[in-house]
Amino acid sequence: MSAAGEVSVGRGIDAERGVEAAEGRVGASADQDRPQSERVFRVVIWSDWGDCHVIQEMHALLDRYVAWLRDKTTLRQVGDWVEVSTPYLDRHNDYLLIYAKRVNGHYILTDDGFVLGDLEQSGCKLESPKRQSLLKMTLNGFGIQLNQGRLEVRASADDFAHKKHNLVQAMLAVNDMFYLAEPMLTCVNGEACRMARRDVPEVL
Known about the structure:
Elements: H1 2-7, H2 12-22, H3 36-72, E1 74-78, E2 81-89, E3 95-103, E4 106-110, H4 114-121, H5 129-142, E5 145-147, E6 150-155, H6 160-175
């Protein structure tokens, strides 16, 4: 930090006192007769100590999150595939399911066509050129391919975690295209949105 560098030259003892103040061993009144630069230096020391404490706390919380994520992820054998139930929810409040299969040293991860099939059953057809373009752009953003209605990605052992995470993100993003369905949405691309009526033409 630049502030620390500007006032730290030649004040090793003051630095120790600054740490003591941060830890509550020196009262605030001890600063009253000291130069302003030294008081600023002590505030910087306290801030750094507090930040380190928060970072350590966040590391512990992230470890708990990883443990929770593993605990909430379940596996089930389905023929040649392994069904991976994730703790991420779709708009129905159902857990997202991924299917994984090892083929020639790599892994195929797929949603088995659930997301697009569910959209179609919910009245959100993606047949128009604009919607097809939006779908393609969404999938390309996560590096996901479309294979006969299935969202798919190939992964190696090294990038499995990254590819699996990208597939989940793509499934959630495509799932949100439901809001393009009648009667959910009638206008996009910068125009005002309102609830659809039967006499309002579809714009996508």
